[in-house]
């Protein structure tokens, strides 16, 4: 979440209807797409979370200073909600923006920081009417909680009562708030969470780790570590086993043989079965195994 001092400009974006009406000259450059824009919104948020987030609290302008001074003795368990009026919202393919023209300040929120968004029925503070709003959980980087997870704040964006549908309209049952939700969903899909190490699907193929790291046993793991065998240029696999061991399992490659165990069956050559299931590797006078139906 970053503070911005000037309001986004309509001319800085390509309207969604225009974007969908033609094939862009490039999918990797050009101005961001404006999916949704609403003026005079209200932001409903717990006051204790607002006070803990100076960037959002600044949307209240001079009220932020007055309320901060009056709320110093407020307990953390207080669930008092406040509503910030007169905030413009911008849902673009780049970021989600909130800006207060009165306070001349706003925030830009990266979509990966929005961990959850949903439609919500709520009562705006100091009113009796129940309205629909866009509920969001926004992660605050650098503020880990007790369980080492990112701290999140929750807030709800409520559109003005006279808000109208914006083009394009996907369904006759859409409401302005539903359109806002759809816009945030679409833009969030454009910014998937980065894949962290260890999150890859193991079905993509085995990855090996250094034998020294796991008591000399080859196991699945990180494939970025150096080769486990001194003198080899890569990993010992079924495809290059003959470069390191002969048919009897003896080390034939340059350098010292590995001193760690290679695991059950390493270096063992299985004899080929001949006709009637008889193994072709063995003396005539030894017991020979046959298949049984």
From TrEMBL:
GO terms for cellular component: cytosol; pICln-Sm protein complex; spliceosomal complex. Pfam families: Voldacs. It comes from the Eukaryota. Keywords: Cytoplasm, Nucleus. One of its GO terms (biological process) is mRNA cis splicing, via spliceosome. It is found in: Cytoplasm; Nucleus. The keyword Nucleus applies. Gene3D superfamilies: Pleckstrin-homology domain (PH domain)/Phosphotyrosine-binding domain (PTB). The keyword Lipoprotein does not apply. Residues 276-286 have a biased composition (Acidic residues). Its main location: cytoplasm. Residues 249-293 are annotated as: Disordered. InterPro entries: ICln/Lot5/Saf5, PH-like_dom_sf. PANTHER family: CHLORIDE CONDUCTANCE REGULATORY PROTEIN ICLN, METHYLOSOME SUBUNIT PICLN. This is Regulator of volume decrease after cellular swelling-domain-containing protein.
């Amino acid at each position: 979440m970053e503070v911005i001092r000037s309001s986004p400009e309509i001319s800085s974006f390509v309207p969604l209807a225009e974007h969908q009406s033609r094939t862009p000259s490039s999918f990797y450059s050009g101005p961001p797409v404006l999916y949704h824009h609403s003026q005079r919104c209200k932001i409903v948020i717990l006051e204790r979370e607002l006070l803990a987030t100076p960037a959002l609290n600044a949307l209240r302008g001079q009220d932020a200073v007055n309320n901060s001074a009056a709320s110093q003795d407020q307990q953390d368990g207080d669930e008092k909600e406040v509503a910030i009026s007169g905030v413009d919202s911008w849902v673009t393919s780049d970021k989600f923006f909130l800006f207060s023209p009165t306070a001349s300040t706003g925030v830009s929120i990266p979509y990966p920081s929005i961990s959850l968004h949903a439609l919500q029925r709520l009562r705006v503070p100091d009113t009796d009417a129940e309205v629909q709003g866009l509920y969001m959980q926004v992660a605050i980087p650098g503020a880990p909680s007790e369980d080492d997870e990112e701290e999140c704040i929750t807030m709800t964006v409520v559109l003005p009562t006279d808000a109208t549908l914006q083009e394009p309209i996907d369904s006759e049952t859409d409401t302005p708030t539903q359109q806002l939700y759809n816009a945030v969903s679409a833009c969030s899909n454009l910014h998937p969470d980065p894949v962290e190490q260890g999150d890859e699907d193991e079905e993509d193929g085995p990855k090996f780790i250094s034998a020294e790291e796991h008591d000399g046993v080859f196991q699945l793991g990180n494939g970025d570590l150096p080769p486990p065998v001194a003198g080899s240029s890569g990993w010992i696999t079924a495809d290059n086993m003959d470069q390191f061991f002969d048919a009897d399992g003896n080390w034939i490659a340059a350098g010292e043989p590995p001193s760690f165990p290679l695991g059950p069956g390493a270096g063992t050559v299985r004899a080929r079965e001949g006709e009637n299931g008889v193994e072709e590797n063995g003396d005539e006078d030894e017991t020979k195994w046959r298949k049984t139906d």
